[in-house]
Amino acid sequence: MNRPSEHRKRLPLYAKILIGMALGVALGLLGASLHFEQFIHHWIAPWGTIFLRLLKLIAVPLVLVSLIIGVVNLKDVRNLSKIGLKTILIYICTTIIAVSIGLTAVSLMKPGRYFPHDKQSEFMQRYEQTVAQKESAMQEVQDQSPLQFLVDIVPENAFHAFGDNSKMLQIIFFALLFGIALVCVGQSKTGSIVRFFNQLNLVLLKIIDFIMAFAPIGVLALMADLVVSYSGDVGIFSSLGMYALTVTVALAVIVFIVYPLILKLFTKKTWKDFIKAAFPVQMLAFSTSSSAATLPLTMERTQKHLGVSEQVSSFVLPVGVTINMDGTSCYQAVAAVFLAQVLGLDLSFGQMLLILATATISSIGTPGIPGGSIVMLMIVLDSVGIPVEGLALILGIDRPLDMLRTVVNVTGDMTVASVVDDGKREAVP
Ligand code: ASP
C-alpha cells in the first residue's frame, strides 16, 4: 500500500513549482491588502534569497565538472570545434529571428500610440535616478575596446573565475582547456581524474535534487515578495498595457511558433516531450527572472528528461546562458521602437536594421540576471539616437516583462541544445 509520503513524491516538479507560485501570489496579495508587507519582506523574502543562493552555489561546480566530462567523452576533440561553431551559428540565427519578430510586432501593433503623454513627465521624474545610474554603467561598456569580450573570456586567475558566477565564459574556457588537456594526455594516464569528475558529477546532480526539493518554498517566497513590492504600481499597467501586450505577443510567437518549428525541422523531438522537460525550467525562470540562476535545473532537465547528451548540453547551455538571449533581444527591439514612437521619432529602415544588429550583439553581452538587459538596452537606444532617458518610461513595468523574457531565454537554450544534439536520441520520458 502506498504511504502518503510516496504520493507526495509523485507530484511532478512543475506542479510543485506551480503550487508554490500560486500560494506566493495569494500570500503577496493578502499581504498587500492587509498591510503586512513588512512581515513578508523580513520573514518570507529571505527564503527566496536562500533558494536563489543555493541555485547559484551549484552553478559553477556543475558547469565546470560537466563540461570537463563532456569534453572527455567526445570521441574526437575535433568534434568540439564542430559543436562550438554549430552552437554559435544557431544562437546568432535564433537571436536575429527573435529581434525580427520583435520589430515586426512593434511596427504592426504600434503600442507607442496608446501611451498617455501626460504620464511622460511623471515617469521621467520617478525613474530619473535609476536612469542616471544605468547611464554611467553604459558609458563604461561603451568606452571598452571591441575586442574586450575576447580578453574577458580568458581568466588571469582560475580561482577568481570560479569565485564569480558572472564569469561563466571564463569558467567554460578553463573547463575546455582542462578537458582537452586531459584527452591529449590520454585515458591511460588520467583515468583516475576522469573517474573522479564522473563521480563528482553524480554528487552535484544529487545536490540539485536537494535544492529542487526546496523549490516550492523558494518560489513561494520570491512571488510573495514580488507581488508585495509591485502592488503599488498596478496603475502603471494601464499606461503601458499595450506595450506589455506587444512584448508578450512577440515572445509568445517565439515560444509557440518559432521553437516548435525549429524542433520539428531539425530534431526528432516532439513539442510535447520538449515542453514536458522544459516546463519546470520555464516556471523557475519565470519566478527567478534569472537564466543564470535557472542553469542547474536547465542542465539537469535537458540531460535527464530531454535526452540531450552530456557532451552537448554541458557546453551549449552554459554558453547559451551567457550569449543566447532570444527573449531579451526581442524585448530590446520592441522597447527601442516603442520609445521612438512615444517620443515622436520616425525610425528609418536603416535605423531598424541598426536596432537588429545592436539588439543581437547587446543581448550577447547581457548577464542572465534580473534586469540584466537594461544597461544593454541603453546601448541599443543610443545607437539609433533615441534619448536614453526615455528608459524611465518603461522601467516601472520591467520586472513582469523580465520574467517572461527569461522564460524565452531558457527555452531558446534548450531548443538549441536539442538541435545541436541533432535529435540523435529520443526524448526520455
Ligand atoms: N533576466 C534575463 C535573464 O536572466 C536577462 C534580461 O533580459 O534582463 O535571462
Q: What is the mean predicted local confidence, pLDDT?
A: 88
Tell me, what's the shape? globular
| CATH architectural label | Orthogonal Bundle
Number of domain units: 1
- Uncertain runs: 1-7, 423-429
Order of helices and strands: HHHHHHHHHHHHHHHHHHHH
Ligand types: aspartic acid
Q: What's the Cα radius of gyration?
A: 22 Å
- State the separation between the terminal residues, measured CA to CA: 25 Å
Number of strands: 0
- Characterize the biggest β-sheet: none
Structural class: mainly alpha
CATH top level?
Answer: Mainly Alpha
Strand proportion? under 5%
- Could you say what the CATH topology is called? Proton glutamate symport protein
Q: Helicity level, as a percent range?
A: over 70%
